[in-house]
């Protein structure tokens, strides 16, 4: 009797399935990590853009902000905060499912001739998540 030797054996099929499973697991892990990294980079870019937007508003209105010649937090009455929503914790912007609360500090050190503006964003747990500085020459 002749045996039919065409096709694959059960052992060959199982080996192929195991090898394919390893490659699928590696690819799945890689794509999951890539997605998580892309999400964290997107959050950082969003925070940087928010910092730059508020810094731009502060720099544009720097001459109209009445503060002492030391370091002060800008009061929320300044008009550049008007576009932000507010809740019981103060003015905030919302992005990536979190609320970020800005803090703007203007510092005019004596005899330096420059104004240092610092914009920071705090999360709802009052933890600093992003900060940016700008030097303004008078």
Automatic annotation (TrEMBL):
The chain crosses the membrane at residues 7-31. GO terms for biological process: establishment of competence for transformation. InterPro entries: N_methyl_site. Pfam families: N_methyl. Its main location: other. Keywords: Competence, Membrane, Transmembrane, Transmembrane helix. GO terms for cellular component: cell surface. Coiled coil: none annotated. It comes from the Bacteria. It is found in: Cell surface. NCBIfam families: IV_pilin_GFxxxE (TIGR02532). This is Type II secretion system protein. The lineage of its organism: Bacteria, Bacillati, Bacillota, Bacilli, Bacillales.
